[in-house]
């Protein structure tokens, strides 16, 4: 196995992890910004106001994005296992 093949595998792995975690991180960022703006406008500094809506939306997003995350990681694992089976590793 050459350095180029190793780099390609690592690159594909990092890309798959970023794609799989992207929806959850994006929703957490968006909800955090909305809550921060709300707190800045109303001057309500309650800790549960930041935690509860964010965690609820993260769980909802996890439920909705699970098929996409599974397909992304399954594609990566199929690629890696095909390389192993064909002697590419």
Overview of the structural elements:
The protein is an all-alpha fold. It has one domain. The protein has helices spanning 3-42, 47-85.
| Helix share, percent | over 70%
The count of β-strands is 0
The helix tally amounts to 2
Distance between the termini: 6 Å
Structural class assignment: mainly alpha
Specify the biggest β-sheet: none
In sequence order, what are the helices and strands, one letter per element?
A: HH
Overall mean pLDDT score? 91
Give the percentage of residues in beta strands: under 5%
| Overall radius of gyration | 19 Å
Poorly predicted spans: none
- What is the total number of structural domains? 1
Shape: elongated
Topology:
Blueprint: H1 3-42, H2 47-85
Helix pairs in contact: 1-2
Keywords: Bacterial flagellum, Cell membrane, Cell projection, Cilium, Flagellum, Membrane, Transmembrane, Transmembrane helix
Function: Role in flagellar biosynthesis.
InterPro entries: Bac_export_3, FliQ
Please give a quick description of this structure.
The protein has helices spanning 3-42, 47-85.
Write a concise keyword list for the protein shown above:
89 residues; mainly alpha; 2 helices
